[in-house]
Amino acid sequence: MSAMSGRWRPAVISLGATLLLVSACAKSEDSTTPAGGSNASAGAQVAQSAAPGAKTCTLDQFGGKKVDLKTAKVGFSQSEKEANPFRIAETQSIKDEAAKLGIPAANLQTTNANSQFNKQISDVEQMIDSGVQLLIIAPLNSDGWDSVFAKASAKKVPIITIDRKINATSCKDYLTFIGSDFEEQGKRAADKMAAAMGNKGSVAILLGSPGNNVTTLRTKGFKDQIAKVAPEIKIVFEQTGQFSREEGQKVTEQLLQSNGDIKGIYAENDEMALGAKVALTSAGKQKGDVKIVSIDGTKGAVQGIVDGWIYSVIESNPRFGPLAFQTATKFFNGEPIPEDIIISDREYDESNAKSDLNSAY
What is the pLDDT of residues 322-335, one digit of tens each? Predict the structure, then answer.
């Protein structure tokens, strides 16, 4: 699964009968200005076609009322503090698209749980109580949403989940999930790691936060694919870095104390990979001594490829705004919405990192 220098992996774009190739603005790691202009389309999310016979949901099935988004009250719940470039880009994309659609700023409620699950539940329940007519949620955890579902169901408020999936029933508890194929991301990372290490050696995994399907599936995909394509690669260390740069650095420091000859690190997001890079440099490691493969596609990580510290990055595109609002518009217009809307993600490596750096977020 090689990178395709600035192009998307093949996908037929479909939501109902309409193409969903959408552009979005996103904040980069180093700037407070939305990255738009000529790079906007390059950073667009692209939805894959739904599987034949896949479950769908309509407004009639859900039992709600038609809503005009231009006059609707919309709630967006962010799960983690906006220090991570992924979260910065994700939130900005929602705000930018709402403004583009003409939704008054006062009608868009945004909250941030700052990685506190109880706060996120409280945030969402308060938005429902305040009368929002659509909820877009980036869940911190995949379980524990029953009280939210009860409140939303009583008022027939559709919930679109993005980035992480909630373990619940679509078209009943929530409308749809929009996000990446996390298991496939793990498999693609494994293919890159196998290539980087010549199919042999010792590898460590910096796990994401426990309790959500992103961590579970990225881990499963990586392990399954490594066992399949490079059985001589041995996973000798696994520990959560909580999707944090600081924790990624600390865990890598612990790793190097117990496994100083480690040859590869699979980081389940870019922030942990960048933390690992700091630990490696502090330990006197040189570029290329330890092959790092990560997932996200932040500017910092892609620059890490250019600089020779990171081998490859599998993108996880955070620019959900256009696709989320387009999905909601179709739903309120009575069109069927797939249970899962899976986006296609690019890859970065030395063949395209420098040329495509401005497409990263």
Answer: 999 999 999 999 99
What is the DSSP-derived secondary structure letter of residue 170? B
Residue 141: which residues within 8 A CB-CB, separation 6 or more?
117, 211, 212
Residue 29 has, within 13 A of its CA and on its CB side, a CA count of 19
Q: What angle do CA 281, 240, 208 make, to 5 degrees?
A: 100
Q: Which ranges constitute the DSSP H helices of the chain? A: 59-62, 85-101, 117-129, 146-155, 182-197, 213-229, 245-258, 270-282, 299-307, 321-332
Name the helix (H) or strand (E) containing 76. strand 74-78
How far lies 86's CA from each of 4, 226, 321, in Å? 22, 27, 13
Q: What is the pTM of this model?
A: 0.85
Q: How far is residue 264's CA from residue 292's CA, in Å, rounded to a whole number?
A: 6
Name the DSSP class of 86. Answer: H
